[in-house]
Each structure stands twice: as structure tokens, then as C-alpha cells.
Here is the input.
Amino acid sequence: MKRLVLTTAMMLGLGLAGVAAHAEGNATENNIEVRTIRAPRFVRPIVEKWIVEYAKSEPGVEFRIVGGTTDDIDMNVAYGDTDGTGYVVFFGETAVLPITAHNSDAARQLSGKQLNAKKIKQLFFYNEDFDEDSKKNKAFENLVVYSGSNASSVATLFAHNFGEEVSAFRGKRISGDDLFLNTAIAKDPMGVSFNVLANIFDIDSRLLKKGISLVGLDLKKNVSAAFVDGATLDDVLTTLEYSRPQEIAIEKVGIKFKTDDNVVKDFLHWVLIHGTKYNHQYGLLNLDNKEANAQMLKVQKNTLTAHNK
Here is the structure.
């Protein structure tokens, strides 16, 4: 299973002050320890929540979310394989679902089809193994696939779940944040895409965001009820924590850092004990008990394991 890697550096605004703190690395400002975090947009709300709650017990430490591409960051959230440097502690998982626009031509064409893993591959990817003359394959040829193109997109996560590379996606590539995938299908009646739960569901209402419809999947009866347009985010989360259908991409989310920094390690320890209780609230799955305990031991034993362990 591929792993999502999360960073530990956060800023409550991306102004010049944050950029300066970013450049200073493990900085101290006015006797306050400052650490930075870079994270994909979908996971920033939970990181912001951690920062607020952690400050209540550790007022002498400040975590800031920052942007940019520099490596001078204390913690970082990223998708897929990492460069092998530093360490990673996993705190949850994310899931990716195929979507289209509600009441669109694409939604009507896909209505009632209940796609299995093979059909999902036929819909989203070019693949020489498919029979080009097959009616099943041609059934999707007029649909327009939209996938992300930047390094933090879930496109890699989604593709690897089906044994594909991002270069195999049909259709059009969208730059920028994956939220733009929702915008793309809203503008194209034949558009289909995919996204993480936090970008598909409204965190407050727990329902699908306005204008979004789930692509029907071929799932077992006791699982399928959670993957219809009327289901809630909580239905999806609780179902995926006991069932892992191959039609749905699920990946771990972790916090990566490079140095043996006690300020960062204390924060990680707090996240694993207290921060994970916000996972469902912000659209993330919990780790199973065995995995959660293994992550806790990484911090407690002061033997943080490299990302591929």
C-alpha cells in the first residue's frame, strides 16, 4: 500500500512573516518555539485544529502552516513514495471516490452501471490490455476524465490503486488544487473525476457537496448502501473501516519530518493520543488498533521508523 506523507509546519496565513519563519527553520521568536508544516489543502483543517488545541496545553510552542516548495520545513504532508529521508508517523487514512456532476449527462450515462475495478480502469485509463473493439470499453469513450497534474494531487494515489501510472489517465489534466476537479466536472456535462472524501463531502452537513454525485460502484450489499448520493460522510467512514473494496483507493496519511527534534516529537505524541479523535470530523479514517499502537511505539521508544517500514 502506498503511503500519504504529512508535514509538520503550519501558518495561520501565508504572509511575509510566515515566509520569514519558514526560512529560519527551527526558529525561536520572543521565547516561543516555532515550527512549520506544509500540508495538502484537504488536510489543513485538521492540522489547524491540532494547532489550536495543542496551544492550550503548550503555549510556548507555535506551529505554522506554510506554502512553497523549499525543503526547509519541519513537517510535510505528501502523497505516494517519499525521497527516503527523515521519518514518518501515520495517524489516519484517506479514501478517494469516483465522482461526476449531479444530474449531468455523464451521471445519466453511468446511472445503474455499478462499476467494478475493471470497469473503473476502462473508464479512467488507457490500457493496451483492454479489447479496443469491446462494447464495454466503448461505452465510456465519450466521457471526459479530469485528473490532477501537480505533485500533491490524489491522481497518483487513485492510479496506483488500480495498478496504473498517472500517465495512463484518459482525458484532461487539471493543474492546482484537487478542488478544481470538482469545478471541472461542474462545467462539463460529460465530465467524470475522483477526489478525497474531504473534498467531496461537506464537513459540517456531512452530506455530499452541492452538485456532486458519486459514480455507482459494484460493491457487496452490506457495503453499497454507504456509497449512494443520500449517504453521509460518517456512513462512508465507518463502512471503510471494516471493509476495503478494491474499487476504492485508501491510503495512509502520515507526518514526515527530517530531524530528531524534541519539540516536533512532543507534538507528534500529542497528535497520536489526542489529535486522532478529530479524524472522522475532518473526513479521515482511523487506523486499526494494531496499526495505531505501532505508530505510538515509534514515538514512545524514540525509535521513529523510516517511511518504508
